[in-house]
């Protein structure tokens, strides 16, 4: 009986040893896998950080043409016509209109043409030419101050169309003379500062704007 008991004990000891061996083997494999996986994780993180640091698109590049200033001008126009004989106006053949329209003029930039670079904490922004983007006559604003038309010399549709074109052109000239383009530049710079402030601390960086001269 004693011999059988000893054999049983030996068997039990062998079973515990095998379990410990398997446990140590598994633990070793887990440690090895962690050591192998760690450089991969670090490498992946470094790649992500490197890609973020190379980001140079700030968002304004996708805007396209954008009006940064608009002007609302009231233009008074005089359209007149008459019949002449030997350089003299024939009485009762004079037609004359005095009227006004409001004209909405917009100026701005094509933001896709803006170029910029950063060097030694200075951001240089090269702006394209500021330009008029549109000028629209507000037909609802039409006012008549004088309306005189002769049946002998009415104003034609062609003459009226030419007068409208001149009115629009004059409104554009008046708007530019009153600072339309200069204000469009200033407003564009303010907008761009907002975009750059999202990526750069403007307390540490200097923004320099370079505008192309208008011809």
From TrEMBL:
InterPro entries: DUF4230 (IPR025324). The chain crosses the membrane at residues 20-45. It comes from the Bacteria. Keywords: Membrane, Transmembrane, Transmembrane helix. It holds the Pfam family DUF4230. The keyword Transmembrane helix applies. This is DUF4230 domain-containing protein. It comes from Amedibacillus dolichus DSM 3991. The lineage of its organism: Bacteria, Bacillati, Bacillota, Erysipelotrichia, Erysipelotrichales.
